[in-house]
Write a structure and sequence with these properties.
Order of helices and strands: HHHEEEHEEHEHHHHHHHHH
Number of strands: 6
Distance between the termini: 12 Å
Largest sheet: 6 strands, mixed
Helix content: 40-55%
Strand order of the largest sheet: 1-2-3-4-6-5
Radius of gyration: 23 Å
Amino acid sequence: MELKEAAGFGAKRNIKDTVFTRLFREKKYLLQLYQALHPEDNLTTEEDLKTITLETIFLKDITNDLGFSVKDKLFILVEAQSTASVNIVVRSFMYLAHTYQEHFKETEQNLYGMKPVKIPKPELYVIFSCDTKTDKDFLILSEEFFGGEETAIEVRVKVITEKNSEGIIEQYILFTKVLDKQVIAYGYTRKAIEETLRICESYDILKEFLKEHEKEVADIMISLYSQDEIYEMYIRDIKKESEARGEALGQAIGEAKGKEAIVIEMIKNNLEPSLISTISNFSLEKINEIKERLLNNVQLANE
């Protein structure tokens, strides 16, 4: 028997995406996004689109930010799911600077030479899927941080809300609204997710995408619950399982030093380390240490 199989480890669940990034990872939906931003352009095709990875800039495992290029344009979108923080302007600027740096490396252009480098024209957007009341068309660096005073750099981030969204962007925002209402009605439960998917299908909100990826989307949505909510959900699930086996969860947790017992159960249930870290607030190093210890125990038991 394989070591991993003996330890109860299986295929990792891919829950690093948000629904936002999972949706626009597919070229057909990314093209719809571009067309919502530039409805005047009916010549661009899926082949003209290139997705750019942004999550390497910040140390986080779940990201709802998106970068892509179309010919000579560079697009960076940041989604604000819960709060309308003006720090999004700084985040967008950091993404932009990092992406340009990678662009020059990839294209092997000499920034120290006499010949002007070729640089894609940037377009920065923030999508407020949260209930944010704002009349601003743009978030502007100088206005938000320097009282409107002119500085050496300027950053302008186009604001998109439900009232000025179109096409697939509007559908995505409506999807988040439906989810929020179901969470209010049913709490952070699978029922809320099931109802969200049912309602969206009934009202043709991201219908095709959700039908194609229903199970994956449900997993992603669960992963985006807050630490405490996921932690409590997981404890409830383990408690039910342990009661079904005639075990006392409280005793098991006590013997395994509290939260570490839950982390061990998560590892055995094949949750990805990044999600375990989010739920438990344990570092990835600590989780890997526990995982290694479990593997060693299994190995010793098999010798």
